[in-house]
Amino acid sequence: MNIKGIIFDYGGTLDTNGDHWSHVIRDGWKKAGVEEDDALFREAYVYAEQELERTLHILPHHNFSDLLQIKIRIELEYLSSQGHFPPAMIDEKADEIAAYCYSVAKSNTEKSKEILTELSKRYPLVLVSNFYGNITSVLKDFGLFDCFKAVIESAVVGVRKPSTAIFELGIKALDCKPEEVLVVGDSMKNDIEPAKKLGCMTLRLKGKEWNSDVISREEGESIENLEEILAFIDGK
Fold first, then answer.
1. Quick one: pLDDT at residue 217?
2. What's CA 30's distance to the chain center, in Å?
3. How far is residue 184's CA from residue 120's CA, in Å, rounded to a whole number?
4. What residues contact 165, with CB distance under 8 A and at least 6 apart?
5. Whole-structure pTM over 0.85, yes or no?
6. What is residue 215's predicted lDDT score, i.e. its pLDDT?
7. Considering only CA atoms, which of 164, 171, 219, 161 is closest in space to residue 11?
């Protein structure tokens, strides 16, 4: 492989080791004793995502703990509006769930930092992420910001995955040809497929997907754990 630069996804790749964030938050609900069924959880999760797209709740200075607090409160407020959750419990349970989810992200990003630090000695790294406008604050919070030559964030550049345009920005930041770039991400739709369209090499981090009962098709190289990337690149 003639790798001269690497593009990383963030959410679901560097912070959960391949698992869709819905699974982490669902576990947080259960640990906090919010025992709604899966269908209602998914309603609340989707509602919160849509609300965050509609309204500017997340500001550039918000770190990941702030983001989780905001997002999970929106989920629980949705439950409450549907008559499934007592309003008086929202603050307490949101704090509890957010703390659990933050601990998961903290643990995973600490491992990711070791890998990124090693890789950054050998290649320029660029982050390409669909995010809320605060990815720089999140990366600094977790000590990852200095690992990257550039950060391309959807809310800032005005284009989102799976558009190939956002990956073109990442390739340009690396100052490489597409065929010299390895793209690492967890999503077939958002990471692997658009990168392949541009002629990049790809490596998919496999984990629990949004539809956990669906087995996604295989397309190209994959790893089960982010720690395997070093062996993959070295051909071991």
1. 52
2. 21
3. 14
4. 159
5. yes
6. 42
7. 161
The 10 Å Cβ neighbour count of residue 131 is: 22
| Residue from 169, 234, 226, 159 nearest 198 by CA | 169
pLDDT of residue 219: 58
User: Tens digits of per-residue pLDDT, 204-221?
Assistant: 999 888 875 444 455 578
The residues of the chain scoring below 70 in pLDDT are 212-219, 236
pLDDT, residue 218, reads: 53
Burial environment of residue 175 by CB neighbours within 10 A (0 to 12, 13 to 18, 19 or more): exposed
Q: Is 40 exposed, middle or buried (0-12, 13-18, 19+ CB in 10 A)?
A: middle
Q: Measured between alpha carbons, how far is 115 from 157 in angstroms, rounded to an integer?
A: 27
Q: How far, CA to CA in Å, does 231 sit from each of 109, 111, 226, 234?
A: 19, 16, 10, 5
Angle between the 64-81 and 21-31 helix axes, to the nearest 10 degrees? Answer: 70
Residue reference for tokens 């947080």: 28
pLDDT of residue 87: 95
Strand order in the sheet with 5-8: 150-153, 125-129, 5-8, 181-185, 201-205, 222-223
Angle at 87 between CA 84 and CA 93, to 5 degrees: 85
Q: Looking at this protein, which amino acid is placed at residue 154?
A: S
What is the phi-psi region of residue 141: left when phi exceeds 0, alpha when psi lies from -120 to 50, beta otherwise? alpha
